[in-house]
Design brief:
Elements: E1 10-15, E2 22-23, H1 33-39, E3 46-51, E4 60-61, E5 86-92, E6 95-101, E7 108-114
Parallel strand pairs: 3-7
Antiparallel strand pairs: 1-7, 2-7, 3-4, 3-5, 5-6
């Protein structure tokens, strides 16, 4: 998985269709709140660049941003299983939050890419 250098000018795209994108970390430094609430489909789930590769509950952002335990947005009862090592962003009862899931199913991803001027 490639990660964009911090010097890139970025635009945001949520899709499974674009293959040449960098997996993003959904944290407050990158994403304005209205991007999540207004742009994402509440019926879909999105990989968000947070995972637990070893199954030890040592969560890691793909861009190496330190994981802050006090600034998390887990849904109630989550994380729920050490076998679920990837994190998705999804809406439950119209409230967005995090859910740990197996990494295998195809889900949408929140990605970032270089801004292109036309």
């Amino acid at each position: 998985m490639r990660v964009a250098p911090p010097s890139f000018e970025l635009c945001l795209r949520a899709s499974v269709l674009y293959l040449d994108l960098f997996c993003a970390s959904v944290n407050n430094k990158i994403y304005p709140k209205d991007f999540i609430s207004k742009k994402l489909d509440k019926k879909a789930a999105y990989y968000m660049g947070l995972s637990d590769p070893e199954g030890t509950r040592d969560w890691q952002w793909v861009d190496q941003t330190p994981y802050n335990k006090s600034a998390t947005f887990w849904h109630q009862g989550e994380p729920s299983s050490p076998d679920e090592r990837c994190v998705i962003l999804n809406a439950r009862s119209s409230k967005w939050g995090w859910n740990d899931v197996p990494c295998e199913p195809l889900q949408r991803s929140i990605c970032k890419m270089m801004k292109i001027f036309i």
